[in-house]
Amino acid sequence: MSRVDQLRGPAPRKRHNARTIAALTGNPGCTRRAVLDAAGVDKPKLAETIGFPGSFGQSRFALARGNAFEAMLKADDCALLRSVLAEAGSTPVSDSFVFGGSYEDLGEDSDDTLDARHARTREALAAGDIGLLDHPLLTLSVAGQTVYLEPDLIAAQRGDMLQVVEIKSFAIVDGQADSAAVSSAAVQAAVYVLALRRLLGDDRVSHEVVLVCPENFSLQPVAVVLDVRKQLSTLRRQLSRLASVSSLIDALPPGVTFDVAQPVPALLASLAAVDARYAPECLSACELSVYCRHEATGSTAALGRPVRDALGGVATVDEALGLAAGTVLPTPEQTEAAALLAAAARLRNEALSR
Ligand code: SF4
Fold it and tell me: For residue 48, how far is its CA from the centre of ligand 1 (angstroms)?
């Protein structure tokens, strides 16, 4: 058994999907997450076992609304969706959509295996005659594991380029949408673009993806185009880091285990043996966040990246307070941060004394 499999214990390897791959980009500097993901550890189960469960996933209401929206768009061979995409043709970017009658639904055969649907996706893409491909199934290698990915649709642009279309249930109100929802949708769509590019080549797949969302407070759909080049390069970096994490795993002390059948103290000691890099953003991106936040209590890093960057070399809040009050002498590396803290304390005292 490889060291990676030993780390996880007898539990089956937790499979990735587009959402979990996208979440890898949330905290690229965290070794703990890279190790746990590379070993396929069930992080929600691990968090629950050590007494720090998190609440993740969409509410039932949001899921039901999302399903209803998607079903409405895809009814009658995607009639409404095609009209929305054609309307988006008035914008310069998506002017090149081609939606001649060609529409193929690869998800119709419910008895299909994943491998068979992936093979049919490859065939349809190789045939080249695509207007709109529904329920395609792509693959991507993540830390040596083949992950199946299901974009909502793949559309053809004029010429040879293909474009990923994602249907999302968050609303675009007066041309604005929740920025966290848009950025997570962009990273997820970038995962599909990367998988398509690895299959067909970079020059066949557009870096622009189409999001179809409800507009304002109705279920009326609207299409927007996003450029995901930045997300693609972060993803590539993060996936190559995961591929090289095995050397890090091999260097871990022999007793380290994330087998959830082990006693809690052993699991906590194992977690402590792998460096974490907690930031408040973890709370929406990683299932271990409640534990890592608890562990980081009292550290300046727990206050967010801007604070961590401004107070480089000052690890704890107590140390920061001491430097601000002048009761702690700064080390040479802390001189700059100490001056900042002392100035902030002086301004605060002046403001309070008025
Ligand atoms: S929650 Fe913990 S393990 Fe997850 S990314 Fe943040 S620091 Fe790393």
Answer: 15
- Nearest ligand 1 atom, CA 33: 3
What is the Cα–Cα distance from 106 to 103, expressed in whole angstroms? 10
Q: Distance of CA 49 to CAs 3, 55, 288, Å?
A: 22, 14, 11
Q: What are the boundaries of each domain within the chain?
A: 60-238, 303-353
Written as tens digits, the pLDDT of the chain (354 aa) is 678 788 888 888 887 888 888 887 777 788 899 889 888 899 999 999 999 998 766 677 878 888 889 989 988 888 888 888 877 753 333 444 444 457 788 876 655 788 888 898 998 888 777 788 888 999 998 877 788 898 888 887 656 688 899 999 899 998 888 888 898 899 999 999 999 999 999 988 999 999 999 998 888 999 998 999 999 999 998 888 877 787 788 888 888 999 999 999 999 999 999 999 898 888 888 899 999 999 999 998 888 888 888 887 898 999 999 999 999 999 988 898 899 999 999 999 999 988
Contacts with 189 (C-beta within 8 Å, 6 or more apart), sequence order:
151, 164, 166, 209, 211, 226, 228, 231
Query: What's the one-letter identity of residue 79?
Result: A
Residues within a 6 A CB radius of ligand 1? 27, 30, 32-33, 276-278, 282, 286, 288-289, 292
pTM of the model: 0.77
Residues in the chain: 354
- Ligand 1 centre and the CA of 24: distance in Å? 10
Phi, psi dihedrals of residue 311, rounded to the nearest 5°: -110, 40
What's the rounded Cα separation, in Å, for the pair 352 and 345? 10
Q: Residue 168 in contact with residue 222, Cβ under 8 Å?
A: no
> In terms of CATH architecture, what is 60-238?
Alpha-Beta Complex (3.90)
Half-sphere exposure of 163 (CA within 13 A, CB side): 25
Cross-strand bridge partners of residue 221? 214
The residue whose CB lies within 8 Å of the most ligand 1 atoms, and thus the one to mutate among 35, 282, 297, is 282
The residue whose CA has the least distance to atom 7 of ligand 1 is 278
> Hey, whose CA ends up nearest to atom 2 of ligand 1?
292
